[in-house]
Design goal:
It is a single chain. Strands 1, 2, 5, 6, 7, 8, 9, 10, 11, 14 and 15 form an 11-stranded mixed sheet that branches. A two-stranded antiparallel sheet has the order 3-4. It has a two-stranded antiparallel sheet with strand order 12-13. The two termini are 18 Å apart. The longest helix is centred in the N-terminal third of the chain and has 16 residues. With 408 residues, the protein is an alpha/beta fold. The chain has 13 helices and 15 strands.
């Protein structure tokens, strides 16, 4: 079984474009929540979102190329470009058939759906764009990154709702482990701050109705009322260890384990006892050869919904027993909101940075938890050695995925 390391990272987030801007935002406790600007949300139950500000696609591609990509694809291409540059990867010196891509999107382009449906109903079927389908479908984040950078190896689009980013990195990890690729660009991208996207999640009562940007995304807090929609992308370069060493790459962390499971319970609610998420965590630890007592930090799915935070807490207690009390558990979503299919990838990047710097960011906005939420959810930042990180993602449909990362 081949060892797999992280050699590059790229991020487009609501608190900064680029990994360093994102990381500085996390350390400063800066939040990306503000009134929605993409459309008039005055009649919606939710009026706040975590939008990516000041993103100019023409900084990353020419105007013609940008017009042939929807927002989520533009985010993916930008994040992948940063990751490739960060890895110092000279693609002209690589065998393109051994460099692959595993970038998912939970939804694809709701913008294209809304726009073309309006054309259909107002102007007739002949006016629907011939590019509607390739612009809309979720695999085009992976497709466009592959085309833009000439990656001819395994090309995957994992779609597991909010677990998409984590599964995408996990499947890239497996591809390298088993020799299907030497290098993979992996992660997730999403851009669904649209009328239909916000209305749909409002109808589910999943979104926070708070109008206070400081009290809208508050995972593990007793006053939590739902998640805040975010957008962006996270892409990492995974590489077989010896391949990375041969080219003198800077190694950021090692991917040690990957665990998955299904709740087989409900289309939106996690299993109440947390057994599914607990199994994914246990599988990741077993895959990485790490004992539960060796882990000190978890980046939780931590959405800020009433059920997720409670059931994920139960899952952690089930997986770790009494050791759960010793774990530091934080939620990156407390600052960037829920990036849906991109969430796990951006949170993976946060994990790598925390391993590197021995710094665990706080769960912003957390004041007081309810009785059963009695673990250490990181009300404050802390500086300490972080040898391992476990990153959790839980998706509608019962998808559970965990990644175990180790410091190099």
């Amino acid at each position: 079984m081949r060892r797999v390391v992280v050699t590059g990272m790229g991020a487009v987030t609501p608190i900064g474009i680029g990994v360093e801007a994102f990381w500085e935002g996390l350390k400063q406790g800066r939040t990306g929540f503000a009134p929605i600007t993409r459309f008039d949300a005055s009649e919606y139950k939710c009026s706040l979102a975590a939008e990516v500000r000041d993103f100019d696609p023409e900084k990353y591609m020419d105007k013609k190329t940008a017009r042939r990509m929807e927002q989520f694809c533009q985010f993916a291409v930008a994040a992948a470009g940063e990751a490739i540059a960060d890895a110092g990867l000279n693609l002209e010196q690589e065998d393109p058939w051994r460099v692959g891509c595993s970038i998912g999107s939970g939804i694809g382009s709701l913008q294209a759906m809304e726009r073309e449906y309006d054309r259909l109903t107002q102007k007739g079927p002949s006016r629907v764009s011939p590019l509607f389908v390739p612009l809309m479908i979720s695999n085009m984040a992976a497709g466009n990154v592959s085309i833009f950078y000439g990656l001819k190896g395994k090309n995957l689009n994992v779609v597991t709702a909010c677990a998409t980013g984590t599964n995408s990195i996990g499947e890239a990890f497996r591809a390298i482990q088993y020799g299907d690729a030497d290098v993979m660009a992996a992660g997730g991208a999403e851009g669904c701050v649209t009328p239909l996207g916000i209305a749909g999640f409002c109808a589910l009562t999943a979104l926070s109705s708070s109008t206070d940007p400081q009290r809208c995304s508050i995972p593990f807090d007793k006053d939590r009322s739902g998640f805040v929609m975010g957008e962006g992308a996270g892409v990492v370069i995974l590489e077989e260890l010896e391949h990375a060493r041969r080219r003198g790459a800077r190694i950021l962390a090692e991917v040690l384990g990957y665990g998955c499971s299904s709740d087989a319970y409900h289309i939106t609610s996690p299993a109440e006892d947390g057994a599914g998420a607990a199994k994914a965590m246990a599988n990741a630890l077993e895959d990485g050869g790490i004992q539960p007592q060796q882990l000190t930090y978890i980046n939780a799915h931590g959405t800020g919904t009433r059920l997720n935070d409670l059931f994920e807490t139960r899952a952690i207690k089930l997986a770790f027993g009494e050791h759960a009390k010793n774990l530091k558990i934080n939620s990156t979503k407390s600052m960037i909101g829920h990036l849906l299919g991109a969430a796990g990838a951006v949170e993976f990047i946060a994990c790598v940075k925390q391993l590197q710097e021995g710094y665990i960011h706080k769960t912003a906005g957390l004041r007081e938890s309810e009785e059963e939420l009695d673990l250490d959810y990181c009300r404050e930042d802390s500086r300490e050695e972080v040898p391992y990180a476990l990153s959790n993602s839980l998706g509608f449909g019962g998808h559970n995925a965990s990644l175990l990362i180790g410091k190099m």
